[in-house]
Amino acid sequence: MRIFSGIQPTGRKHLGNYIGAISQYVRLQDEGDPAIYCVVDLHAITVNYDPAELRDRLYDTTAILLASGLDPERCILFRQSDVAEHTELTWMLAATSTAHGDLNRMHQFKDKAIAQRELVSAGLFFYPVLMAADILAYNTDLVPVGDDQRQHLELAREIANKFNSRFGETFVVPEFTIPDVGARIMDLQAPENKMSTTSSSEAGTIYVLDEPKAIEKKFKSAVTDSGSDVVRDKEKPGISNLIEIYAVVRGVTMEAVESEFADSRYGEFKQAVADAVIEYLAPVQEKYTELRADEANLEAVLAAGAAKASAIAQPIVARARDKMGLGRPVV
Ligand code: AMP
Ligand code: TRP
């Protein structure tokens, strides 16, 4: 089973990324044949950015992934812009197999376009096509993602189907997997919104690299709802989110969390969640510091990953070009 996923090098990675995506990547790395993980710098440039900072953030993200347990001996970890097939295939898919109307319906484009103070680029509009190209270039069977990527994945499947029906069977139509628990971690200050790098509040976002003191402070000041019982309820998004976080981090069910804290009040429970998350992130933070300091090593890991990724993507994209009637015919 071939596994592929992508993660942006923008900003700092948060607990939502870690629980919803990164921990799945680590879990799946031995099930992939191979598992391929891509740091998507070409996606990151669709909104305003600074070139030097992009490189720094890319190293940060690569070091976080390695510190979390991705092992370059057991998976392929690479930088998107190192493999030219991604951009080439984006155009091929955009021109022949992507409906403008489908792109127009993408929620993330609408949200990000509203948030842009300067240019709303055509690249931002094309973002989901690049994402489809990332996936299809490897004949991916399974894509692990968080809940917010569902619409993009459905579009990638649609694009693969359109291409295959027009040019003949070429691409695998990818399945995706979203975790049962932790697919949508919410902002601690505004639990009706997802935790996110761009739109959520600093106080409501736990970063993977936050100091223990900061983590404790953020959980203690998390918005909770009226009442005092530690139980899930649609009307209580704040406490429900904390229950979900605690369950994932401790590896227990949400029911078990409710019974463990049946006699507790919110304050005591928040402290327990803070302690659990601090303990959960500590080993990642420790390894991160060492890995991040050695940029030459990070570059070496990415270069080795790119060579392996290219070797897979090249023949798949070459075959698609041939089916489209582009270039010299392949005999
Ligand atoms: P990004 O940082 O936008 O590249 O996201 C990387 C991965 O994290 C994607 O698979 C997202 O679906 C996932 N993700 C982002 N935010 C959250 C969240 N609040 N809860 C769970 N997963 C998330
Ligand atoms: N768009 C994804 C996000 O913001 C990142 C991404 C890019 C991705 N290419 C991908 C995820 C391919 C899965 C597969 O989270």
Summarize the structure in words.
The chain folds into 2 domains: 3-177 and 294-323, Rossmann fold (3-Layer(aba) Sandwich); 212-289, Orthogonal Bundle (Tyrosyl-Transfer RNA Synthetase), CATH 1.10.240. The strands form 2 sheets. The protein has a 3-stranded parallel β-sheet with strand order 1-2-3, with helices on both faces. By secondary structure, it is mostly helical. Helix 8 (150-167) links the parallel strand 4 and strand 5 (175-177). The radius of gyration is 21 Å and the shape is globular. The protein has 13 helices and 5 strands. Helix 4 (85-97) packs parallel to helix 13 (295-323), helix 9 (212-220) packs antiparallel against helix 12 and helix 10 (237-250) packs across helix 12 (266-292). Helix content is 55%, strand content 6%. The structure holds adenosine monophosphate and tryptophan. Residues 7-8, 16-17, 19-21, 145-146, 148-149, 183-185, 194-196 line the site of adenosine monophosphate. The site of tryptophan has 14 residues, from strand 1 and helix 7.
